[in-house]
Write a structure and sequence with these properties.
Structural class: alpha+beta
Number of helices: 11
Number of domains: 3
Helix content: 40-55%
Number of strands: 9
CATH superfamily of the largest domain: Periplasmic binding protein-like II
CATH class of the largest domain: Alpha Beta
Keywords: DNA-binding, Transcription, Transcription regulation
Family: Belongs to the LysR transcriptional regulatory family.
Order of helices and strands: HHHEEHEHEHEEHHEHEEHH
Protein name: Transcriptional regulator
InterPro entries: HTH-type_LysR_regulators, LysR_HTH_N, LysR_subst-bd, WH-like_DNA-bd_sf, WH_DNA-bd_sf
GO molecular function: DNA binding; DNA-binding transcription factor activity
């Protein structure tokens, strides 16, 4: 069993296609296939079921692949230690960010991070939580910036700060007469929501204990964008819930439509997440420090009394 064979094994698991895996490993398909076959013969088991398209690992193969990822990652950590000592923080940082954080948090820190670490190439993709976690496990991402806890034993969470939920209400909404709102005071039929798949939607539904019901207007609109939800509230009626960072840059007129929750305010935990056997430790530590340095102080100093979990 060799490190190269294990790397080929992981590539096939990631791309579920022998030709693509060979291309990513910069070898021919016959070379990759032959090495994996040798590994299977040495182990005396079949790691991949080649009768299925796309190719998939067998049940025992899944367990072997988990251990292979750990073994390859531990070996690469040796190379990483030497590289950081010799060259400093360099290389590529592939980051996935959820859409309810990306437009509000990334601009706060990314310019200074790039200037401070000019030898790091940052690649950022917006995607929902489930996709980020899947790509972390397949080593297609180095780090995720999302909302936790995830309750996944293969993922390491690094909490950064706690962001409050706020209400955003049309001026004609009955709750706009109040200075603060409660979850119990919200009529679920008045809520505009994000699409399925967004963790923020899940948290809002949990917070408001909303069951499916009929809206009070002749329009049913679920969006993938918080900015769209804001515009719907402004031009139609009803209300939505928003994360705190998304209202920081609103005009004074629009800030008048915001209503905070009574204390203790419901919060969401924002974290960096990595695979348990993650690499690029120094780079991710630098990213963590840069994010924390640029987050408004009120978010960093909160006591997380009422964190809304993700279900």
């Amino acid at each position: 069993m060799t490190l190269t064979q294990l790397e080929y094994l992981l590539s096939v698991d990631t791309y579920r296609h022998f030709a693509t895996a060979a291309e990513k490993c910069f070898v021919t398909q016959p070379t990759l296939s032959m090495q994996i076959q040798k590994l299977e013969e040495e182990l005396g088991v079949q790691v991949f079921d080649r009768s299925r398209v796309p190719v998939r690992p067998t049940e025992l193969g899944k367990e072997i692949i988990v251990q292979a990822r750990v073994a390859v990652a531990e070996f690469k950590k040796i190379e990483e230690l030497v590289k950081v000592q010799r060259d400093g923080i360099t290389g590529e940082l592939r980051m996935g960010v959820i859409p309810t954080l990306a437009p509000y948090l990334v601009p706060l820190f990314i310019t200074d991070f790039i200037q401070k670490y000019p030898q790091v190439h940052v690649s950022i993709q917006e995607m929902v939580t489930t996709t980020i976690v899947e790509k972390l496990k397949l080593e297609l991402l180095d780090v995720g910036l999302l909302v936790t806890p995830l309750h996944d034993k293969t993922i390491l969470e690094i909490p950064l700060f706690y962001e409050a939920f706020v209400g955003y209400l049309h001026p004609s909404h009955p709750l706009s007469e109040l200075k603060e709102i409660t979850a119990e005071s919200i009529d679920p039929a008045d809520l505009w929501l994000l699409n399925d798949g967004h963790c923020f939607r899940s948290q809002v539904l949990q917070l408001c204990n909303r069951a499916k019901g009929t809206r009070n207007v002749h329009l049913d609109y679920e969006s993938g964008s918080l900015e769209t939800l804001k515009r719907i509230v402004e031009t139609q009626s009803g209300m939505t819930l928003l994360p705190e960072l998304s209202v920081q840059e609103l005009s004074s007129e629009k800030k008048a439509m915001i209503r905070p929750f009574v204390e203790p305010q419901p919060l969401r935990e924002v974290s960096l997440v990595v695979h348990r056997s993650f690499l690029k430790k120094r780079m991710i530590e630098a990213l963590r420090d840069e994010i924390i340095a640029h987050v408004p102080s009120g978010l960093k100093e909160r006591n997380p009394v009422r964190v809304v979990k993700i279900k």
